[in-house]
Write a structure and sequence with these properties.
It is built from seven helices and 17 strands. With 340 residues, the chain is an alpha+beta fold. A hairpin with a 2-residue loop joins strand 11 and strand 12. The structure holds pyridoxal-5'-phosphate.
């Protein structure tokens, strides 16, 4: 079997290597221009642009994989396009049509087909939408103008060198985002979570912070949080306070089909600690990490090992099931892959 595409090594530094082309489309006074593929380059922006002052900016993250026979496919494009539109609505930004978003992405991927790395690498797509109206007086009104850009970045295997289990610090006071706005994939949510992540890195050498305001277990800065044990998966139900992950949804579908009882309900830090003390596993889900095992928690200064501190077997099993569909080695029973 032959695989074409650039080597994974070249794509090692996630986020800093970009594909040759990007897609650009502009909204001016309510009308969107047709998305255009252009060379990846700086975007001209007025210093009064709404996004720079009032954070009218959101994004997506999805991946393009090269299947075993060399064909290229996008994973769950529709779900990502819809989520971008929901984020845009929450930010009162001009909302591109679903057709426009899909067209921009598909046309770009066609152009970049040769730049999709071979397995286990992929081409990470970063659609972004931001308010461009040049008006610093618009603090209390939406940007009428916007830019929709799709940036592409070849990435290697996130777990090259072996999947290391993560250390999470539990934050039981601060919120990552507001209860109404957590479901928007907005840069502002990241900015507000950052100082808590920095302090957990400094104080505990934690990889991530698990936000549990008032004891309610939510998610980390960029990933959803799941509890697993033999035959059962527990996670928070979807509400407006946190990000509705496409990976979370995919894992839930797969877990149900593999016979797990999937429970979506709120749970507390005490329940979480009880779960991991009784040989349960914990994992983070997201497009970049897929399903990453948690090996250790830090709670109020106390270090709590989960299992042996390594990635648990159930986490591993579910991760492998999802990766097989993403890479194209397993049948696409759910219509998640779009061949381009
Ligand atoms: C993007 C993101 C996720 C993961 O979503 P996926 O669709 O699975 O990539 C989880 N939490 C936050 C805060 C995010 O921004």
């Amino acid at each position: 079997m032959t695989q074409s595409g650039p080597s994974v090594e070249k794509a090692a530094a996630f986020g800093k290597v970009f594909a040759s082309h990007m897609s650009l489309s502009w909204c001016t006074k309510g009308a969107w221009s047709a998305p255009e593929v252009t060379v990846t380059a700086p975007i001209p922006l007025h210093p009064a642009a709404h996004a720079l002052h009032y954070a009218s900016s959101c994004f997506e993250g999805l991946k393009v994989y090269r299947g075993p026979s060399g064909q290229v496919h996008i994973f769950r494009l529709q779900q990502h396009a819809e989520r971008l539109r929901r984020s845009a609505q929450l930010l009162c930004l001009p909302v591109p049509s679903a057709a426009n978003v899909s067209e921009a992405i598909v046309n770009l991927v066609r152009q970049l087909r040769d730049q999709v790395p071979e397995n286990p690498g992929s081409l990470y797509l970063r659609p972004m939408l931001f308010g461009t109206e040049a008006n610093i007086g618009a603090a209390a009104s939406p940007s009428q103008d916007a830019c929709f850009c799709v940036l592409a970045s070849p990435v290697g295997d996130y777990f090259s060198g072996g999947a290391r289990a993560l250390r999470l610090a539990i934050e039981d006071r601060a919120m990552r985002a507001t209860p109404e706005f957590g479901m928007a994939k907005a840069g502002a949510n990241y900015a507000s979570a950052l100082k808590h992540i920095e302090s957990a890195k400094r104080n505990y050498a934690a990889d991530q912070v698990l936000f549990c305001p008032g004891g309610d277990v939510q998610e980390t800065g960029a990933s959803n949080f799941l509890l697993l044990r033999e035959g059962e998966l527990l996670t928070k139900p979807l509400d407006s306070g946190y990000l509705h992950g496409v990976t979370r949804d995919s894992i839930l579908v797969l877990a149900r089909d593999l016979g797990y009882r999937v429970v979506e309900r709120n749970f507390t830090v005490d329940e979480l600690l009880g779960w991991v003390r009784q040989e349960g596993e914990a994992a983070l889900s997201g497009t970049a990490a897929v399903l990453a095992g948690v090996g250790e928690l830090v709670y109020r200064g106390e270090h709590i090992m989960i299992g042996t501190g390594a990635v648990g077997p159930i986490t591993q099993r579910l991760r492998e099931a999802l990766v097989a569909i993403q890479l194209g080695t397993a049948e696409d029973c759910y219509g998640w892959r779009l061949d381009v």
